[in-house]
Amino acid sequence: MDILGVFFYSVNHNEDDVLEIDINDNEDVSNYLENLVDEILNNPNKKQFIIRDEKTQVISIFLNAINVGLDRESSKSIANRLLAKEKDQQKLIEKLKINIKKGSLFIALFEEKDYYNGVVVKVDNGDFLDEIEKNKRSGLPYENKSFKECIIQIGKKTKEIEKIFLFDRNGKVAKYWSDDFLELNQLMTDERATVESFDIINHIFKKNIEKISSSDYVLLKNQLLGYFKTQLHFNIDEYFKYTFGEYNPENDLLDLEKIKNLIKDKLENTSFEIVAPAIKNKKINITKRVNEIVEININGFSEEIKNKIKAKVIDGKKIIEIEATDEDTFNCFKWS
After folding, report:
1. Strand, helix or coil at 7?
2. Exposed e or buried b for every residue in 272-295, given b needs 16+ CB within 10 A?
3. What's the whole-model pTM score?
4. Burial of 309 per CB tally in 10 Å (0-12, 13-18, 19+)
5. Mind listing the pLDDT tens digit for each residue in 130-157?
6. DSSP E strands, 263-316
7. Residue 149, Cβ neighbours under 10 Å: how many?
8. Is the pLDDT of residue 321 over 80?
9. Alpha-helix runs per DSSP H in the chain
10. What is the pLDDT of residue 134?
């Protein structure tokens, strides 16, 4: 790793001040930076963004810095920009009695095999007692390093921005961080990601489960609808845990690992805030003929689907039992 500039600033919007904190440019800093970047790139909840314009402040600084290095003046202008945007944001939310979390800004540019990596990270820095000098000092945390992250990857051959990833520990990336401060646009909106991811999994279920095991298809589609209707955030590992964690197939021929791998191939690095209204018209939508006069139509999600409808064999006859919660419907078939 070849470091082309690394700076650390205390940003205090309450005191309207940006203060550079000295961090020695040595092997420890290099290791810290390498670990931080690995943490960002391997974070399953990161979101991909794209530039709005190469002339925006933070982007133009990094594009210029790959040729001349990242200097103190340009890095401090980034810190001052964050200070201004946090002050503006604090004014907007102060009536809600919410305060923007205090922290410091870590800014770096380094070169590796294929990319120049620009890093802008807001960290939880804290005071600690120096064991040797016995005085209070401030520094970078090794555990729980950051709560807002940005990595800008610039191709070494193209000298163009190829990928930008953002992460916010609070879940949804704060607008003042992505939009106001960094001036970036999300590659895919949460609403679009919700619809497309639901449709991808639904298609995989339809193609690979229904013909093998119709009962598993009903149950797993019910779980799919339930996850997107009840959860706030999509993460592939969390989805697998919700859907397949304790699931035992009704049909032993169903290969759940194959199904999971098909989903993983499509959505492994996908992360977004689920926008439930975007799929309000999505239903289980399964209609089955019971006999010559009755059909069953299954639409909505139910955590108790196995208890609400089940098939049995009684005295040699195939019977489907359905729990009725609608009084009129129940009375309609209440015969002596």
Report:
1. strand
2. bbbbeebbeebebeeeeeeeeeee
3. 0.64
4. middle
5. 444 444 445 555 555 567 999 999 999 9
6. 271-273, 286-289, 295-298, 309-314
7. 26
8. yes
9. 27-41, 57-68, 72-93, 175, 190-208, 214-230, 236-244, 256-267, 305-308, 327-332
10. 41
> Using an 8 Å Cβ cutoff, are 79 and 11 in contact?
yes
Inter-residue contact 218 to 252 (CB < 8 Å) = no
More confident residue, 23 or 75: 75
The one-letter amino acid at 59: I
And the tokens for 53?
Answer: 């314009």
- Our CA angle for 35, 36, 39, nearest 5°, is 85
Closest by CA position to 50, among listed 149, 158, 187: 187
- C-alpha distances (whole Å) from 202 to each of 64, 205, 272 are 45, 5, 18
| pLDDT the model gives residue 30 | 72
Which sign does the torsion angle of CA 238, 164, 261, 229 carry?
positive
- The pair of structure tokens assigned to 334 is 């209440």
Range in 29-33, 103-107, 153-157, 230-234 with the lowest mean pLDDT: 29-33
Total residues belonging to the chain: 336
Give residue 139's pLDDT.
53
Rg (CA), the chain: 27
The pLDDT of residue 138: 52
CA distance 115 to 37: 12
- Collapse the DSSP code of 319 into the 3-class scheme (helix H, G, I; strand E, B; otherwise coil) and give the result: strand
